[in-house]
Specification:
Number of helices: 13
Largest sheet: none
Number of domains: 1
């Protein structure tokens, strides 16, 4: 049997393995045109989720940089906190192709409208958005825009740092259902790409916490960072528990929903720690 190109490709430069995983995450989680790196295997192949997500916190940071720059630019142009926050969230949706938002809508429709495990999974497979999904999307956008606008009022330009950090931490938290739960559809696409090992998840957590520590010089207090991390962890634990009870495992939609809720929890946690 022929080996996968990812297994036989030789590193082309120091730190190549980490760079390959980062590039794979950027391609999978966004619509950014990431070029093939020297010595890399097939850039169009599905990433190996057993190892690639170790770089997901850094990928989340990169994916959120356009949103952070839009937030700063709109704020500097005097558009006001609400418009600046709205444009920043819109930029993030464009970068990711609404990947996580789609997962949130499917989970809301399935968990809210299905009476049995099989019915919930069938609803989640349907590409159409129902009432539960529509409401979940509106609430997610409203909460993120509202939180960012309030942060701009309270901490001004530092809100861009918070936005980028929340993106990195929430994507790290979204790995937890993959690690903690078996696939709800053993023959589905989620099962085919593999699950992050506990070592991979541990590396991602350490990297995410490291990024949080690096944000200290930008003005985010330790208490705020602790609440952001705690909010993400609580959201991940809650989504995993709900998925276990509702469908007996995880899917890609569950991961997307977890990211959205973890990001909201991180931003709200920061607001609690930075009163007006």
């Amino acid at each position: 049997m022929a080996q996968d190109a990812r297994d036989i490709a030789e590193p082309g430069f120091p730190g190549a393995r980490a760079a390959y995983d980062l590039a794979a995450c950027l391609r999978f989680y966004s619509r950014l045109p990431v070029p093939r790196l020297p010595g890399e295997g097939d850039p169009h192949g599905v990433p190996d989720f057993r190892t690639a997500p170790r770089m997901l916190p850094l990928a989340g940071l990169v994916l959120a940089l356009p949103s952070g720059l839009v937030l700063l630019g709109a704020w500097a142009l005097g558009l006001g906190p609400f418009l600046a926050a709205t444009l920043a969230v819109a930029a993030g949706v464009l970068v990711t192709g609404a990947l996580h938002e789609d997962g949130l809508a499917d989970v809301a429709d399935g968990f809210g409208g299905g009476a049995t495990r099989e019915c919930r999974l069938e609803i989640m497979r349907d590409s159409r958005i129902g009432a539960y999904g529509g409401v979940a999307l509106m609430l997610s956008l409203a909460l993120r825009i509202g939180a960012l606008a309030t942060l701009l009022d309270r901490i001004e330009a530092v809100a861009a740092v918070a936005l980028v950090l929340a993106a990195a931490l929430s994507r790290t938290a979204a790995l937890y259902p993959l690690v903690a739960l078996d696939p709800a559809r053993p023959g589905g696409a989620g099962a085919a790409v593999g699950r992050p090992s506990r070592r991979t998840f541990g590396i991602a957590v350490v990297l995410g916490l490291g990024l949080a520590g690096l944000s200290l010089p930008f003005g985010l207090p330790v208490a705020a960072l602790a609440l952001m991390v705690g909010g993400c962890a609580l959201a991940a634990w809650g989504v995993a528990g709900l998925a276990r009870r509702s469908i007996g495992g995880q899917t890609g939609d569950v991961v997307g929903a977890c990211q959205q809720l973890a990001e909201i929890a991180a931003l709200l946690g920061l607001l609690v720690a930075t009163p007006a």
